[in-house]
Amino acid sequence: AMYYAKDKGKGRYEVFDDSMQKKVQNALRLESDIRKAIAASEFIPYFQPIVRLSSNAVVGFEALARWQSHKRGFVYPNDFIPLAEETGLVMAIDLQILEKSCRQLKHWQKQLNRKDLYVSCNLFCNHFFSPTLADDISAILKRIGLCAKHLRLELTERALLENSELVLTNMKALKQLGVKILLDDFGTGYSSLGYIRKLRFSTIKIDRTFVIGAAQQSAESLAIIRAVVAMAQSLEMTTTAEGVETPEQAQLIRELGCDKIQGYYFGRPMSAEDAGRIFAAQTKQQRA
Question: With a threshold of 0.85, does the pTM exceed it?
Answer without folding.
Answer: yes
